[in-house]
Specification:
Length: 243
């Protein structure tokens, strides 16, 4: 009852956004203007908080170089390109995102990271990467994306399909807190309004369970807490899985 009451209070505070959504105005405005702007600013903060973890996560990317000597990466939900700085020199990156409105921030990241070869940008959902041939990439990268895809299992299935045998799926995602914690209590309260404001972002997904149930042959996963005070997205998982 307390969760429902506090949800209603939060919805009242966000009533203008709910009204714009009802009128069909908020979603296109969010996708085209608000969310690209917000994500670029948030990515800068999140990158500072997770820089050491990302450096450690992507340190072994060269180990998955194909026998031909090339390292082909596919990033699902590239956004503004916050991960480019961590990729090894000379790797080839295919960028994908369901939202094509990140181009300005993405271009800035590309210009800053000339050590990476950018092959193409595809407007595609994580659950439908039909433009990418099966077994054609050495690594798939997915950070802060699985919270908002329509199907986590569908996205992981596509990642497995496009990976060559022996390739790796890298992830860094915010997840549901422990159910007995105050963090989870606040996640439950914020859930509906947060999802509306931040373009479908879900606060309570237990993504580690999807990864454990996917058909990876090896999974290295760690639960961490990212210092993002006054937000409901501090609990994260980080790691990689091998096909």
């Amino acid at each position: 009852a307390s969760v429902l009451f506090l949800r209603a209070c939060l919805a009242l505070l966000a009533m203008p956004i709910y009204l714009l959504s009802f009128l069909g105005i908020w979603e296109p405005f969010c996708r085209k203007i608000f969310f690209p702007y917000f994500l670029e600013k948030f990515s800068a903060v999140h990158e500072r908080k997770t820089k050491k973890q990302k450096q450690e996560l992507f340190r072994n990317l060269p180990d998955f170089t194909s026998p031909s000597g090339e390292l082909k990466l596919l990033e699902i939900g590239t956004g503004c390109g916050a991960n480019f700085q961590f990729y090894p020199p000379g790797c080839k990156v295919t960028c994908t995102d369901i939202n094509p409105n990140f181009q300005r921030g993405l271009s800035r990241s590309m210009n800053k990271n000339q050590h990476v070869h950018y092959e193409r940008f595809l407007v595609a959902a994580g659950e439908d990467l039909h433009q990418v041939p099966s077994g054609s990439v050495d690594a798939v990268i997915c950070t802060l994306v699985l919270c908002s895809v329509h199907s986590v299992n569908g996205t992981l299935k596509e990642a497995l399909r496009v990976l060559r045998p022996g390739g790796a799926f890298y992830f860094l995602e915010h997840v549901a807190a422990d159910h007995s914690s105050w963090k989870y209590f606040w996640q439950q309260i914020c859930y509906p309004t947060w999802k509306l404001v931040f373009d479908g972002c879900c606060l309570t997904r237990e993504i580690w369970k999807n990864l454990e149930q996917a058909n990876f042959s090896e999974l290295k996963l760690q639960h961490i807490s990212v210092a993002l005070p006054w937000t409901p997205i501090q609990p994260h998982i980080i790691g990689y899985a091998v096909k």
